[in-house]
Design a protein that fits this description.
CATH topology of one domain: SH3 type barrels
Shape: elongated
Distance between the termini: 54 Å
Length: about 120
């Protein structure tokens, strides 16, 4: 399971996020998007070595996150179960591999062009 998919399951959990610049952000997760941006409410933000600042809503850019500190009461076993796991490839019900190809589609490396006498690879 990818880290982002795990963090998306933390909706309505209270977490502490430590940023790369040393700032700590403590609040309730509203949403985590695919870029790992974390949107929070009821935030207490503490700059490194300064007094905390209270903010109603805050969004943290995913690339600035160093750690996400989870609460001790969180049931990790339930969150780590990934229901979206599907078998990939292999012989399915049809009995042949690669049956996902659409009818009339070209194979690998067949290009888009039609047949011409002056195209690439033609001698003439």
């Amino acid at each position: 399971m990818k880290l982002v998919r795990f963090l998306m399951k933390l909706k309505s959990e209270t977490v502490t996020v430590e940023l790369k610049n040393g700032t700590k952000v403590h609040g309730t997760v509203i949403l985590v998007d695919y870029s790992m941006n974390i949107h929070m409410r009821g935030v207490k933000m503490t700059y490194k070595g300064q007094n905390p600042v209270h903010v109603d809503f805050m969004s943290v850019r995913g690339s600035t996150v160093r750690y996400v500190i989870l609460p001790d009461s969180l049931n990790l076993d339930a969150l780590l179960i990934d229901y979206s796991m599907r078998p990939r490839g292999g012989a399915g019900v049809s009995g042949k591999q690669g049956s996902r190809r659409l009818a009339g589609s070209r194979g690998r490396g067949q290009g888009r062009g039609g047949r011409s006498l002056s195209g690439r690879g033609m001698r003439g």
